[in-house]
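Entry:
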Amino acid sequence: MPGTTTVLITVTGPDRPGVSSVLFAALTRHGVDLLDVEQVVIRGRLTLGALVAAHHDPEGLQEAVEQAMASIAMQVQTSLEISDDPAARRHSTHVVVVLGRPITARAFGSIARALADVGANIDAIRRVADYPVTGLELLVSPVPGQGSEDYPPGTLRKKLVDVAHAAGVDVAVERAGLGRRSKRLIVFDVDSTLVQGEVIEMLAARAGAEDEVRAVTEAAMRGELEFADALRARVATLAGLPASVLADVAGELELTPGARTTIRTLKRLGFRCGVVSGGFTQVIAGLAEELALDFVAANELEVHDGRLTGRVVGEIVDRPGKAVALERFAREAGVPLSQCVAVGDGANDIDMLATAGLGIAFNAKPALAEIADTALSAPYLDVVLFVLGITRDEVERADAADGLTRRVPIA
């Protein structure tokens, strides 16, 4: 508009009630139009930015704002003729979540340099967690003409993952927009994901075959053996055990730290939650009931005359079977696969994670980490929440409302 000057006003200082009202009272007296405004508070320090269109006397506006802010001990900077061209505005295309214990300046600097190297600008940063890890969420956009938005799928993530690994942090990369916030169904692997340890090894210990079974399990999780063959070989070692060992082992299961928080929080948000396991229904059924899970898919051990026969009943839930189970759960819940999340740790989870809209490798074997959308190395399952854009503050406020606030000390 002819005769109009665009002015950027930046106010900084201690956060206190009334700062915005004083600023906008001064702006009102000059009859400006508000074009944009943003505010952030970090540890009690306020930064407030307002972009306005001044139709007359922009220098007088500057002086009035400076006097008004000085009256409440706030600092102010003004810049004239700031562009408000819509074509110049950035629209964030990706979300990058950085997780670490801690996130050092060196590690964050490495991520920032990697983004700059691929022509990506950091538009905004917010903290999503301070416990049990530090989590920072970055909104990034391509610098015009440098093409970061046109990278083939996964290229940006691969670049950042390589840098993050060297820096000792985890990184998750997703497209920004509605798709990220539309997830509605999540499935977890059980052994070494939802619970600590491997159920088959706990059972094998009763049969004196723990070392033998562990070796087969590790080879299967690395992708060196077909899961179905490995399962049959391991289950065969259990032949003759009393069926009561199933209840004994079920009673010994220990949830991964953060598992209850994760399920509880996702259910508050309306997620359908389930497990898809290469383990055994008789062992995890009680846990699924305790956590109020919506779906369970697992193998069933054959029992005859009160003893295990060393065989499984029915179709084996193997690598392809896990993906089939996820597809069935999604169909039953009426949720598109693009809105599904899968979390696992082994090679037999590859198809399931590839089928889901978001596949998360949790302390995973290399074969799975390489194909997953995101790989997490912290031993806390609630880190999954931060990848989904849920903050620790939001979790704890919801828990506090239910009288559940508690932080377990971390060594």
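The first strand starts at residue 5 and ends at 14.
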